[in-house]
Amino acid sequence: MSEPAAERHYEPVIGLEIHVQLKTRTKMFCGCALSFGEEPNTRTCPICLGHPGTLPTTNAEAVHFGLMIALALGCDVAPRSIFHRKNYFYPDLPKGYQISQYDIPLARNGQLGDVRIHRVHLEEDAAKLVHAGSTGRLHSAEASVIDFNRGGTPLVEIVTEPDLRSASDAADWARLLRATLRTMGVSDVNMEEGSLRCDANVSIRPVGESTFGTKTELKNMNSFRFLERGMEAELARQEGLVRDGREVEQETLHFDPQTGALTALRSKEYAHDYRYFPEPDLVPLAPTEAMLTRAREALPELPAARAERLESEVGLPADTARLLAFRGELGDFYEAALAADGAVDARALASWVTNELQARLGDVEDPADSRVEPAALARLVAMVGERRISQSAAKEVLDVLAAEGGDPEAIAAERSLEMAGGDEIAEIVERALEQNADAVEQVRSGNQKAIGAIVGAVMRETKGRADGGEVQRLIREKIGA
Ligand code: ADP
Ligand code: ZN
Ligand code: MG
């Protein structure tokens, strides 16, 4: 029953491998402080430089963060995991091996959202190779220099099962993971700075097929947008190959977001033989009940649970709940505002936070760093609900709040933005009816649309300080339509 390839539909299969730099005070196996852009090679010692005769000691805080991550991802923690030496020669690795975990990782079999977690393990980061061309310090294009500050930084590697079925789902899931890690405070999770690094394993298969196709690996995308675009490009490339009757080759690829090009880094033929063997200088990692309890108790409410709560308990639409939960700082602002004003409608407030407020934040990521106080936004949204101010006038007040801060009641009063009172409106409506006799006639003879002209006249007169629905009601009442 073979269909022609051109008519076949293909389904993406994606699994992610994520490296997370832990925000511990010191490195994974030595006492050096972590580095944040210090002068190169100022955060080093004989241990992380791999001098002979030195002994590594496992960082207890890194283990604690690793356990928090394992538990947050619903994994089974291994009663006893061990470290291995992963041997390879590269200038960024002074020891000639990386200490990592191999056949018995810290934790396995978890789940986040609808993606299963294959494993979570601890390891150390390599040093950083800086190619002279990019520093501009050296003139020879051949030269590379090494900064050992990063070498030995604690890493957690998270490997998913190949459960993702589209590039955009994969990027969304990676955002959920980042939000989760950020909420836990275990990492800076900054992709541009490399504290969160994401490799995507990508393959396609005919829809309905149960076995997987050959995968390629996209290395180290430094933003979610590029990650998604890289996966899209690679999926399209693979589909082109397969439709041409050719085969996907297992290889590691680099995606250039500038040009959209995919280039091979290494293919399977050059696959490393890492000659893993147990690290003889480290004891096995056997978390005690006390360590597990401490890790469990250190977990805050995680974004997936928060989205669930905002939806089911607060009654927000699912996408708004997710936006607030996954951008935790927006969620914090929202919940502070909600608690600050008993009169505000929860859904209306959520919509103001995710739309109008966010649009006015500019480069400010966290609304807590803006001039708008949660209570001030809540009051403003409550004023709209109480019909004391129109939507458009409220947006004007929010402009002022974002620029200068302050109290929405005072700003509205100062700028005469409050809704016109009943008597004033009645007078203006009366005048509008006189000046729009034609429209009044048309409404009377059944042309409902003609009422728009009269409403428009009233709104112009009040400079938007009237409620459109209320004005319409008044007009109908007065002309008996
Ligand atoms: P490898 O041995 O090449 O490292 P693994 O089986 O350890 O491969 O898987 C590494 C990553 O690749 C995991 O995230 C996994 O989900 C993903 N993966 C495995 N097979 C496929 C496939 N056929 N298509 C897409 N992703 C895959
Ligand atoms: Zn050191
Ligand atoms: Mg693997």
What would you say this structure looks like, in words?
α13 crosses α15 and α13 packs across α16. With 481 residues, the chain is an alpha+beta fold. Strands 2-5-6-9-1-10-11-12-13 form a 9-stranded mixed beta sheet, covered by helices on one side. α4 links the parallel β11 and β12. The radius of gyration is 30 Å and the shape is elongated. The site of zinc ion has 8 residues, from loops. The site of adenosine-5'-diphosphate has 15 residues, from β1, β9 and β10.
> In which range does the helix fraction lie?
25-40%
pLDDT < 50 stretches = none
Name the average pLDDT. Answer: 92
Count of runs of 4 or more consecutive helical residues: 16
Helix/strand-derived category reads alpha+beta
Strand content range: 15-25%
First and last CA, distance? 69 Å
Radius of gyration from the alpha-carbon trace, in angstroms: 30 Å
Compressed to H and E, one letter per element, the order equals EHEEEEEEHEEHEEHEEEHHHHHHHHHHHH
Strand order of the largest sheet: 2-5-6-9-1-10-11-12-13
Biggest sheet record: 9 strands, mixed
Bound molecules: adenosine-5'-diphosphate, zinc ion, magnesium ion
Number of distinct beta strands:
14
Shape: elongated
